[in-house]
Structure formats: C-alpha cells, structure tokens
Design goal:
alpha/beta, single chain
Length: 359
Amino acid sequence: MTSSHGRRLLHLAAAVDQQRVYDADSYVDLARLAERGGLDFVTLDDSFARPGPDALCVLSRLAPATSRVGLVPTVTTTHTEPFHVQAAVATLDWVSRGRAGWRLGVSTGEGEARLFGRRNAAPVEALWQEAGEVADVAAKLWDSREDDVGTRDVATGRFTDRAKLHHVDFTGSTFSVRGPSIVPRPPQGHPVRVVDATESHARRTAARYADVALVRAVSPAQFAAVRDQLRDTASAFGRDPEDLRILASLVVDLGGGEYAAEPGHGGGGPRQTAQGPLYRGGPVDLAELIAAWYTDGTTDGFHLMPAEPRRDLERLVNGTVALLQHRGLFRTFYPGSTLREHLGLARPANQYAVTGGAS
C-alpha cells in the first residue's frame, strides 16, 4: 500500500510499557490514546528476568477495550511450550478480531533457566535458532486447520471436515510438536510476527520469519546497514524483501514540550545511551526527524518507546502525529480492521490448502 507521494505508507507504533503497573485501566488508556493517533500497533514487553504482568494477558484485556490498534506482546520462546505459545497468540488474534502480533523474545540468563528447571542457559545464537523454529511450527499449526474446516452438518452429525484438518509432525533442535492446533485458524491467517533485529544473533530469524523487524539505530547510515542486510538475507531465504517492514526503534523523551531538541538530538539525530538510541526534545523536532528518515527511504517507519508513558504518548499523538498527518505523511484513518491491513501485508495462504500436504 502506498501513499499519495508514491511511497509505501509510513508506519508508526509505540510501546505501552510501565514499570510496576498492574492496573489494567492504565494500559487501556495508553492503547486508546495510540488508537486515537492511528498508530499501527502498540507493544508490551515481557521477560522472565524482571517482575511485571504477563504481556499477552494484559493485551488480551485491552482487546475488547479497543477496536483498531494492533496488539503486540513479547512472548518468550525459551523454556516455553511452542504448542501453547501459538495457541495463546492465535487466541489473542480471535479476541481482538484480527489485531494480534507476537514479538518473539529469548531468555538468556541462568537464573531464568532455574525458574523452570528443565535445562541450562544456552548460547544466544542457539536460542534465536530455536525461536525461528518456534515461529516456523507456529505457522504450521495456524495452518493445520483450514478456514472452513468446520462443517456443522447436523443431519450427518459431522462437525469437522477431516480433509481440511492437517497433521503436523515437527522436530526442532530442542523440541517436537504434533498437531493439529486446538484453536481455529486465526482471523489474520498468521498473526504478525515481530523481531528486534538490532543484534546480529536475531537477524537470520527476523529475515526468515518476521513480518516486522525493529532496529535500534542512532543514524540513518547505521539503520540502513542493518536494513540492507535483512533484505538481502530475506531474499536468500526466498522471501520478497518488500514483505518485511523494517522500523527504527527509539526511546523518546518529549519533556521539552515545544522547545527545540537539545544539541545532538532532533535534526542532529538521537544519542546512544545505555537504554538504546534516545531522542530528547519536542514533538515538532521529532516529526522532522521521522519525516527525514522516512522521505529519504531510510525506514518504513518508527517504533517509539516513551520515556514517560502517558506524558510522551500524549505529546506524540497530539503533536508529532498531528504534524505528520498535516503534511500528508501519515494516515488520518485506519485502512482496515486487522493489523495486517494496517501494515499493508497480505493474509497468508494456507500452506496445506495450497500444497495439499503436511510437513
């Protein structure tokens, strides 16, 4: 999908992370604010390494409280059962009516491994290989039930067309799964898969399986180097690189109100910090930064992480987004009802219905 400028549409997403917040209403307010701004999706991070609410459960609570914005929790693939992961993500897609995504995460620490007691911590390269296998088997399980598998033929007593129910027998490096799934094929076919591809260990998995890749970078040149590598690797895997949305990920501190960005921020670009690339300034300068990186073809869009969730998201929506909309760079309404439609991504064909076989 392209804009009136002839370019692919700008994509914007925001994190709704809040430290030590367990009240669902606070997350609902942030998601509704993001939806009012027309953002493609919101993310909620999760990790076995720190206290916090379960991201997938929180966003399931947000589903009936919102109607358009995409919902993307981090779901860790390490120490978790792939069959349960795919079923939970598929369920989120159903309860949100096609707005679910899944940000793949891995667990690297020995302390986290002891929480489960199944195995020791593994090298990060092996963990991302496993994450790719989980993404692969999830897609197979999502396809194991064709869209019209249920016949509901009361006269014959048949409620399932077994010809449209496909067996999955998958063996990965650390797990094996047999299907079919217990959840019907999700509304989107495959919920959107998101991978942070900043670190080199995650890039092969992102290039092969992700619909959206996030890259933390302080300059267009740094971002472009990773973007080109992801596109080349996607091509090598037989994918059309145009099917991969690659977004720049920034922490944004908009406490400066309408004032110009501090030196080194704004038009000069973000600064590198211990928390990652940080933009500190006002919403006007942030709009200029986003417009510059987008119009020169550097990025498909931005994933923005507010330093102060409510304050910065309000200034992002009321200031930055409004300016981008005024310039015709960002949409003023959602193009459809599903996250895939927001991102301009086609609904995947069922691999078994097309090939007529199972893996």
